[in-house]
Amino acid sequence: MAAEEAALSPFELAEPRTLGEAFALLSEGDGNVRPMSGGTALMLMMKAGVLRPTRLVSLRRLGLDRLESGPDGELLVGAMVTLRALEKSPQLKDWPVIAGTLRTLSNVRVRNVATVGGALAHGDPHMDLPPLLSALGATVSIAGPKGERVCLVEDLYAGYLETTLKPGELITQVRIPALRGRQAAYLKCTTRSADDWPALGMAVVLDAGKASIFVSAATDRPTRFIAAERILSGTAFDERALREAAQAAHELPIESDLHGSAAYKKHLAAVYLRRAINEARDAGR
């Protein structure tokens, strides 16, 4: 405990009530100002000495915790909605794949605090929501000092712990399109407990002979499995097509890490692609 206390440098905590105030606070300083949503990952990085911010700008008073349905049946999730609130929301009944994914995303203590926007903005490729939301075609609304923009979740990531958010920009909302008959599944392989960091995550969405497939954890960002999508396009996802798509796993940009070698993870990708497609088809039935 003493070592952790020594590593946690003093900082100012600001709690703006408008986005304008937040942008002004974030623009001050010498690059040592950071926004804070749930703070679960941020505090761990501060205790480890990886980050030493002089000011944290809390986003909890900005009114970004709304969860509602859109006019086209989409789900609109405020960036400050906690993972647990999303998991328990009755509105999630139309997206059972998200509810199932959240149940093994870390543990309930973390999900009570961690937020949807924070989970996406952190940029950790081991997170479960980014690949699934990418496969579902979800978008994020982003606000900054120069205005607002909309970005696909899959375009939010530039590399390991790197996002395409510009300085001072904040995610304000996530828009998840209605499933409308699409079939979806997310599976992950963990080397220890079910809520551990995955060695590999596989998200699949099937829609009228087309497949949207994203791999995570084994890559430095949620990565579209383009080769498999092309092979499966226009097929009935029969055994021959699945076998050919699984063989394309060798084309994925997978690297070794503490959770397994690149060769092991490419084998996992082949296995979990077939499993995820079969689970998505079963869920649709």
Please specify the SSE layout and strand pairing.
Blueprint: H1 2-7, E1 12-14, H2 19-27, E2 33-36, H3 40-47, E3 55-58, E4 67-69, E5 75-78, H4 83-88, H5 96-102, H6 108-111, H7 116-121, H8 129-135, E6 139-144, E7 147-152, E8 157-159, E9 162-163, E10 170-176, E11 183-190, E12 198-207, E13 210-216, E14 223-224, H9 226-232, H10 239-247, H11 262-284
Parallel strand pairs: 1-3, 2-3
Antiparallel strand pairs: 4-5, 5-10, 6-7, 6-10, 8-9, 11-12, 12-13, 13-14
Helix pairs in contact: 9-10, 10-11
Shape from CA axes?
Answer: globular
Q: Which CATH class of the largest domain? A: Alpha Beta
The class by helix and strand makeup works out as alpha+beta
Number of helices: 11
Task: Give a concise summary.
This protein has 285 residues and is α+β, with helices and mostly antiparallel strands. Helix content is 32%, strand content 24%. The strands form 4 sheets. The chain has a 5-stranded antiparallel β-sheet with strand order 4-5-10-6-7.
Describe this structure in words.
The protein is of the alpha+beta class and 285 residues long. The chain has three domains: 2-58, Uridine Diphospho-n-acetylenolpyruvylglucosamine Reductase, domain 2, CATH 3.30.43.10; 67-176, Uridine Diphospho-n-acetylenolpyruvylglucosamine Reductase, domain 3; 183-284, Enolase-like, domain 1. The chain has eleven helices and 14 strands. The strands form four sheets. It has a five-stranded antiparallel beta sheet. Strands 11-12-13-14 form a four-stranded antiparallel beta sheet, sandwiched between helices. A three-stranded parallel beta sheet has the order 1-3-2, covered by helices on one side. It is globular, with a radius of gyration of 19 Å. Mean pLDDT is 92; it is low at 1-6.
